[in-house]
Specification:
2 domains, mRNA binding, mainly alpha, coiled coil, Bfr1, Nuclear segregation protein Bfr1
Length: about 425
């Protein structure tokens, strides 16, 4: 319960208290408690005078009432035991049983049962006579009681008795009402005191809570200002850290790019094309590949083959994003586009060998080889007669890459180092 709710309840309880107090009046109205008590005392005095003057009549009345009650109980007991309440009905039942016996067509067991019933009826006739005697007796007693009532009616004893009974009941009701009102008043007074104490307690709590709230509010204001400042510093530090990480990451990427030799992909594509043309068309020389290859690093020396010292394509290191490595010979054979494959069994073996084809026969290359030619911007040979010129172009292009590799690498490295210097300067400035 809040303080406001308690304050609102208190006036209602006060109204209830006033209502309860207003209903508790001992001398209010014509039938007040004191007037009823005085009237009861007067009735008792009058009844005492009447009882003294009519003592023998009242005793006779009480005696007759006792006798009538006793006879009534005897009559009820006899009626519950008798199958027939009149002599006429008993005689009628007896005549019917005797008529059955006179016919003589009954069995022995049936005759015995009829004799037993006749005996019971004869015995009940005596009780019926006794019942009739008792009924006549109770009638006479009631007549005597009526005479006694007539004698008593000459006085106002009966009226006084009825009035006394009514006033006694009314007095009991007033006593019960007074007790209820007193209990209600006591309960309301107790409740009022409890509410008053509760209001005082709540007001004390309210003052203490307000003081505590004021203190906490001041502390919160100071704390919130500190948090705002701390959050600002943290956000500033976070942004600075993210910026530094971004700059360092970019510098790292640039350093990685600087470590890659120039024209590495182009040289690798040239070597792969020359190796492919030599292995499939016997054009060019593998020795040229070995003598004219760039000086490999310590890690790339593991990519040299042990049989012919031809460097295998490096698919793990120093490969730029988007570079494509040529597949093996077996995979290249699977990727060929050859028309009319169903007629291959009918052709002779010499028709399936590109090395034995005529100079005017067209050449077919896998898509990966065609893509390599396109990367080097060299037109693929249309027939075997163009192969030497194409190999020569690839060799010249590869040699030009090798010749210019050191210069291009230094130029790229210098450019990247310049960019890194700018990034580091930006980092130091931040």
């Amino acid at each position: 319960m809040t303080t406001e709710a308690t304050v609102k309840v208190a006036p209602l309880d006060s109204e209830e208290l006033n209502a309860s107090r207003g209903g508790n009046s001992k001398d209010k109205g014509p039938e007040s408690r004191s007037s009823i008590i005085e009237r009861l005392r007067a009735i008792k005095a009058e009844q005492a005078v009447i009882k003294q003057s009519k003592k023998h009549i009242i005793e006779k009345q009480e005696q007759l009432n006792d006798q009538i009650s006793k006879i009534s109980n005897e009559i009820k007991s006899l009626k519950s035991k008798l199958p027939h309440h009149t002599i006429a009905r008993a005689e009628k039942e007896l005549s019917a049983l005797e008529a059955k016996l006179e016919k003589g067509n009954l069995k022995l067991v049936e005759e015995k049962q009829i004799f037993d019933e006749i005996h019971k009826i004869n015995r009940s006739k005596k009780n019926i006579l006794t019942l009739e005697t008792l009924e006549n007796d109770i009638k006479s007693k009631k007549s005597e009681l009526n005479e006694v009532y007539k004698q008593l009616h000459g006085t106002n004893a009966l009226a006084l008795s009825e009035e006394f009974t009514k006033l006694s009941e009314k007095l009991d009701q007033l006593k019960a009402k007074t007790a209820t009102e007193a209990s209600a008043v006591s309960a309301v007074n107790k409740k009022r005191d409890e509410i008053r104490d509760k209001i005082n307690e709540l007001y004390t709590e309210k003052r203490a809570a307000f003081a505590e709230y004021k203190e906490a509010s001041n502390k919160y204001f100071v704390w919130s200002q500190e948090q705002k400042k701390l959050k600002y510093e943290q956000e500033k530090s976070r942004r600075l850290k993210e910026n530094n990480e971004r700059i360092l990451s970019k510098a790292k990427e640039e350093l990685e790019l600087a470590s890659i030799p120039a024209y590495e992909d182009e040289i690798s594509i040239c070597n792969n094309l020359m190796s492919y043309l030599h292995s499939n068309y016997n054009v060019g020389s593998l020795d040229a590949l070995a003598t004219s290859k760039p000086n490999p690093s310590a890690d790339n020396s593991k990519n040299l083959t042990s049989s012919n010292n031809i460097r295998a394509p490096d698919t793990t290191s120093n490969v730029l994003e988007g570079a494509r490595v040529l597949p093996s010979k077996k995979d290249r054979e699977d990727a060929f586009f050859v028309g009319n494959a169903s007629k291959g069994k009918k052709k002779s073996a010499k028709n399936s060998n590109p090395k034995s084809s005529s100079n005017k026969q067209g050449l077919r290359f896998p898509l990966s080889i065609l893509d390599s030619f396109n990367t080097l911007k060299i037109t693929p040979p249309g027939n075997t007669s163009e192969l030497p010129d194409v190999v020569s172009k690839i060799t010249e292009l590869r040699d030009s890459f090798l010749k210019d590799q050191e210069r291009a690498t230094k130029e790229k490295k210098a450019k990247i180092e310049e960019e890194i210097s700018k990034l580091m300067a930006e980092l130091n400035t931040a």
